[in-house]
Specification:
nine-stranded mixed beta sheet, two-stranded antiparallel sheet, alpha/beta, 17% helix, 22% strand
Length: 255
């Protein structure tokens, strides 16, 4: 009988560069759980608008996109994620992952039919297809990046009560800059009023961090540079202003 190779076993590693720690299953449960949880790190989920056509009606949908290269974005790349390893390694690791991650951003959750042209949302899909595509999100750690899409906030409003970290981008090709910053400022100011209870409950009450990545020479008022008050209750920091490749405007709640 021929000797079986390592490729014959579904549990053998196919890479000689990654050794297997065989005693791992015999470690105390508490230690194993700590090791699994150490793989949970912040990620950036890049959502971008794609256009599909239903007969003669355009449908706009958010899809997860590859991380942009450093040369095409003012946002630094995210570190590698071990989420897939947690979900697929074994029942124990998957149970840990499910304690920290939830399914979100199904393609059906983010459909907008003829957005901006007077059309309503498309009919909801049948239940069997409602979660055909989704993404795992850790709401405490993950940054939700909606890119440069006009009105991109509307695509993630369904999850407004869960999102804590939000990011978008702008540049000279999509806006003069002034309008973009005014929209962000006004949005945060209105959100503050709602959080205070003056206009009712605010769905964005859990939001704690907003980043705006700005490419090239988009306008930025001198009074907003450095740390300072952007909106009452929010701290502002400008990162990467000196490198000439754009900058990131970081706003964090102070309460």
């Amino acid at each position: 009988m021929d000797r079986k190779t390592s490729m014959d076993s579904p549990y053998s590693s196919t890479s000689t560069s990654t050794p297997t720690f065989h005693p791992f299953p015999f470690l105390p449960l508490e230690l194993r759980l700590q090791i699994w949880e150490s793989l949970i790190t912040p990620r950036t989920i890049h959502l971008r608008v794609a256009t599909f056509w239903r007969t003669l009606t355009p449908v706009y949908r958010l899809l997860v996109a590859p991380a942009p290269s450093s040369s095409s974005s003012s946002i630094p790349p995210s570190p590698p994620s071990f989420l897939q390893s947690l979900l697929l390694t074994c029942h124990e690791s998957r149970a840990v992952a499910l304690n920290f991650y939830q399914k979100a951003f199904s393609e059906w959750d983010t459909d907008r039919c003829g957005y901006g042209y007077g059309y309503g949302n498309p009919p909801r899909p049948r239940p069997a297809h409602a979660t055909s595509r989704y993404h795992w999100v850790n709401w405490d750690l993950d940054m939700i990046d909606i890119g440069r899409s006009e009105g991109g906030i509307c695509y993630v409003e369904r999850y407004a009560r869960l999102i804590r970290r939000l990011r978008k981008e702008c540049d000279r090709t999509t806006t003069v800059g002034r309008q973009e910053f005014r929209e962000v400022r006004d949005w945060l100011m209105n959100m503050n009023i709602k959080v205070a209870g003056e206009i009712g409950e605010c769905p964005w009450a859990k939001l704690r961090e907003v980043e705006v990545g700005v490419k090239d020479d988009a306008w930025f008022p001198e009074s907003w540079r450095g740390d300072g008050a952007f909106v009452d209750g929010w701290k502002v920091e400008v990162r990467g202003w000196e490198d000439g490749r754009g900058y990131t405007l970081v706003m964090e709640r102070m309460d």
